[in-house]
Write the structure tokens for this entry.
Amino acid sequence: MNSIKISSALISVFDKKGLEPIIRNLVKNGVQIYSTGGTEKYIRSLGHSVIAVEDITSYPSILGGRVKTLHPKIFGGILKRSDNKSDLDELKKFDVPEIDLVIVDLYPFQKTVNSGASQDEVIEKIDVGGIALIRAAAKNFKNVFCVSNKSDYGSFLKILNKSNGYTSLEERKYFASKAFNMSSTYDTSIFKYFNTYEKFLKISETNPRTLRYGENPHQEGSFYGDMDELIEQINGKEISYNNLLDIDSGIHLMNEFKDSNPTFAILKHNNACGLASRKKLLSAYKYALAGDPVSAFGGVLISNKEIDFSTAKPIHDLFFEVIIAPRYSSKALTLLKTKKNRIIIIQKKHNLPESSIRSCLNGYLVQEKDLRTDDIETLKNVTNNSPSNDKIADLLFASKISKHTKSNTIVLVKNQQLLSSGTGQTSRVDALRHAIDKANTFGFDLSGAVMASDAFFPFPDCVEIANNSGIDSVIQPGGSIKDELSINFCNENNMTMVFTGVRHFKH
């Protein structure tokens, strides 16, 4: 039962676009067509004969169209086993027509949800008969060909044209797998709409974006999701796996500064190597670059404001992989596009996900994203001296960067500029020493700088090292049983320290 000629077809689709060439081919090959409602009328409008489902079932479409195909004479014709004599005898006894092809396009449930429709409108777009037809046809792939998505019309038509209406077992099995994928995706979207009660992890994404490779050339990589909702690429080579990780980090980091003065950030390996806020974007870029001009090479650039021509000119001289901004002036864009491989991205206004998922062992870790941003209202001054308003601004600036930097991390800031950071170290002391060494390498004066830590200090060693380098203000979560040791050191050395009460680990 490998090769089967299609002799009868049930067609019931929501969207008729692209269906006509298939209808024409089926008619040419003498296929008997059965159909419902609007699809039946459409086929007749093309000048072709068609048998209405209700003429088979002797029941009209009822309940406002909720029940059309749900009948033994339809599902018996789909689920029959052609090599089973008992099945064939029963079809004959009950006058059930055999069906070799099922074409279904489901009600657009998710599209209706996304449109902001009312609950009643959404409910009516939950397809029942269509999904049942798909499951039945796919289950019986040995005898039935199932087309479950209008995106497959083209490939199905090629099969028809190639074989004069014959289909192979492998082709039917392949389309059955696509049908079950469609069914699971459809049901997942419905579940997510209804579920506000239970914690379940259901991921069902179709149409993966194949990447050149994963983190390394020997690894395959794909992106699942609707990237176009959030970003629009307007120039450059294909976005890579690593590009996407940096883009994600950049967008989440800059989200902390979406309502701030012009702010520019440069990222490398998911961490900010430069970031500054100024009254003018050009100045913000120059100060961001000064933070680490070495790491900036081949990095990802992101701005919270439109890239103008005056800012684009020095940016153009830098080698970088990606630039992201909400807008670009026409002159800036013309200049930046002169390097054809440079990836230029427009960031759209769109809500970011509120949870994160990552594989772990033989399962997944799921958590709420760290959406807490430290602010002046939540700060607790724990030292004798209180930081000035300017210091508080720098402390919060540093805290935002620390939150989006790999742990363990120490971030050094002065005058709304990232001076340096120590990232991903196994020791907080090592992170601080690395940050100080890096700042010194690029000639920064740490006198009057502030320090942010993503977690508490278990000992006073970090504040002592910071003080010896000229740093005079610290922001940290607090919560160590030995907090008093660090507080006492600050008081003895005229330093200020504030607690946030919130840890920002990023592993």
